[in-house]
Amino acid sequence: MESGKMSQAKAKPDKEPKYIINIEGEEFPWDEDTITTEQIAELGGWDISQGVIEVDQHNVERTLAPGEIIAIKPGQGFGKKHRWKRG
Questions:
Q1: What span, in angstroms and rounded, lies between the C-alpha atoms of 50 and 15?
Q2: In whole angstroms, what is the distance from residue 20 CA to residue 11 CA?
Q3: All structural domains of the chain with their residue ranges
Q4: Sign of the dihedral defined by the CA atoms of residues 33, 36, 37, 43, in that order
Q5: What is the per-residue pLDDT for 7?
Q6: pLDDT at 40
Q7: Measured between alpha carbons, how far apart are the two ends of the chain, in Å?
Q8: C-beta separation of 63 from 53 below 8 A
Q9: DSSP symbol at 49
Q10: pLDDT tens per residue, the chain (87 residues)?
Q11: Rounded to whole angstroms, how far apart are CA atoms 8 and 74?
Q12: Judging by beta carbons within 10 Å of its beta carbon (0-12, 13-18, 19+), is residue 28 exposed, middle or buried?
């Protein structure tokens, strides 16, 4: 019976990420309720000196300030509606 419990434990999927964020067309799992400008650049693979631009669901662009903290809220659809790119 122990081996049955072990195989069930292995069969369970890992915990899903809380959010999926889109950086330059690539999706990244994210578990925190906020993300900083620097974290976005790091995930995207570019230097923060290039800047970060937020693009909202209406394609309105806004340049983020260094050190800015962006709140990610459930239901905003960040994987498809909000995205970031280097600026």
A1: 34
A2: 23
A3: 34-86
A4: negative
A5: 47
A6: 95
A7: 57
A8: yes
A9: G
A10: 455 554 444 555 567 888 888 899 898 999 999 999 999 999 999 999 999 999 887 889 999 999 999 998 765 444 445 677 787
A11: 30
A12: middle
User: 64 is written with which tokens?
Assistant: 């983020």
**pLDDT the model gives residue 16:** 80
- The β-bridge relationship of strands 52-55 and 19-23 is unpaired
Distance between CA atoms of 34 and 45, rounded to whole angstroms? 19
Q: Quick one: 76 exposed, middle or buried, by C-beta within 10 A (0-12, 13-18, 19+)?
A: middle
Provide the whole-model pTM. Answer: 0.71
Amino acid, res. 72: I
